[in-house]
Amino acid sequence: MTSAVKTKSGVGRLHDYLELTKPKVVALLVLTAWVGMMLAVPGLPDLFTLLAATLGIGLLSAAAAAMNHVVDQRIDAQMARTYSRPVAKGRISTPQATSFAFALAIVGFVLLYTTVNAITAWLTLASLFGYAVVYTMFLKRATPQNIVIGGLAGAMPPLLGWTAVTGEIHGHALLLVMIIFAWTPPHFWALAIHRRDDYAKVNMPMLPVTHGIEFTKSVICLYTVLLFIVCLMPYLVGMSGAIYLVGSALLNLRFMQYAWRLKFNPHAGTAMATFKFSIVHLMVLFLLLLVDHYFKVSPIYVP
Ligand code: HEM
Ligand SMILES: CC(C)=CCC/C(C)=C/CC/C(C)=C/COP(=O)(O)OP(=O)(O)O
After folding, report:
1. Membrane-spanning residues where (predicted)?
2. Rounded Cα distance, 236 and 229, in Å
3. Is 117 near ligand 1, meaning CB less than 6 Å away?
4. Which ligand has an atom closest to residue 19 CA?
5. Could you read off the pLDDT of 64-112 as tens digits, one per residue?
6. What is the CB < 6 Å shell around ligand 2?
7. Above 70 in pLDDT, residue 7?
8. pLDDT over 90 (residue 162)
9. pLDDT at position 302
């Protein structure tokens, strides 16, 4: 079996390396970084900066994801959701995956440092460190608040996009970070409810394992309310207009409805449906910010 695995075709190996980078997650991270870049200036940002920042942020995010595969290979091998991952299965060795991750990280960092700016390069590297080291190596194994604190790393891309274009940290960019920060717990805990037994088996202190499924569902409900409130902020500070306000309210009401159903009227598929909706929610929310930015209807209240 192992030798059959090792003689995989070139396309198969390429697919395995791609899987290491968690491409769908990175795609959404990059989308949020783009929105940060677009919202940072009135018109369109400089095209070269946009391309270089996209590539640099994407490469460092992919490197962080590959490092996560290396660090988590033993627990990945024991969980139904992750047992067939390339490092967990031995299709890619630890040295190969590690060198790949470091190569991506170095290229990404040098690209950002030399063609974008130093602040973006260092903040993106700090995000990689936050996810691959602080979250994956320590927090994940230490506390059920792991994804609340670790979620900050994944929430950073809008700020990274903003600094790429302006070289400065701006309050509006921090609002976008806060949105993803508040979104991450209901995103992850919905999946963790569905996969509770997997996490219990490998002794990961995820909230449904440590505090039970009912408590986790209640906290998810509270976070969707918090998210609703945080999502009002771009409108209230005059950063976004009516298109965003209406769209975001509808999206958040729907997320609250999923959370409510998960708590009070669940069926077997409700937790996964909530998790899947969380991804659609964030993607559409950030697209709305973009549409609103270019077709802005003035807010009723401009401070
Ligand atoms: C610490 C914070 C986060 C945790 C713990 C987390 C956890 C997870 C987990 C366990 C999965 C399932 C992966 C799989 O089945 O292979 C997942 C999927 C996903 N996450 Fe997150 N996530 C976090 C933050 C984010 C952020 C910030 C984004 C984007 C902005 C994101 C976007 C996605 C997407 C798009 C998927 C679906 C991937 C797929 O279908 O292959 N996540 N997340
Ligand atoms: C540079 C930068 C912006 C870095 C952010 C990197 C990044 C890939 C963040 C995404 C968060 C994520 C997929 C967490 C799941 O990890 P997990 O280990 O809990 O889930 P798993 O069991 O599916 O691996």
Report:
1. 25-44, 50-71, 92-113, 119-139, 146-165, 171-194, 215-236, 272-291
2. 10
3. no
4. 1
5. 999 999 999 999 999 999 999 999 999 999 999 999 999 999 999 999 9
6. 22, 25, 29, 60-61, 64-65, 68, 72, 82, 124, 127-128, 131, 136, 153-154, 156-157
7. no
8. yes
9. 52
181 CB-near residues (< 8 Å, 6+ apart): 151, 152, 155
Torsion angle of C-alpha atoms 271, 277, 278, 279, degrees rounded to 10: 120
> Taking the domains of the chain in order of start, what are their residue ranges?
20-169, 170-303
CA angle 172, 303, 223 (to 5 degrees): 50
Token output for 14: 């390429």
User: What tokens appear for 257 in the block?
Assistant: 């409805």
- Ligand 1 centroid to Cα of residue 297, in Å, is 33
* pLDDT of amino acid 206: 98
Which two structure tokens, joined as six digits, stand for 186? 């209901």
**pLDDT (mean) for 133-141:** 98
Digit-coded pLDDT (tens) for 171-202: 999 999 999 999 999 999 999 999 999 999 99
For the stretch 60-90, what's the b/e string if a residue is b when 16 or more beta carbons lie within 10 angstroms of its beta carbon? bbbbbbbbbbbbbbebbbebeebeebbbbbe
Nearest to 147 by CA among 185, 109, 103, 119: 185
Question: Which atom of ligand 1 lies at the shortest distance from residue 131's CA?
Answer: 1
Largest separation between any pair of C-alpha atoms in the chain: 66
Q: Give the Å distance between the CA of 86 and the centre of ligand 2.
A: 16
Which of 187, 199, 278 for mutating ligand 1's site (highest number of atoms within 8 Å of CB)? 187
Identify the pLDDT of residue 256: 98
Domain 20-169, classified CATH 1.10.357.140, yes or no: yes
> At 268, which amino acid appears?
A
Q: Cβ-count burial of 51 within 10 angstroms (0-12 exposed, 13-18 middle, 19+ buried)?
A: exposed
Structure tokens at 88: 């967990």
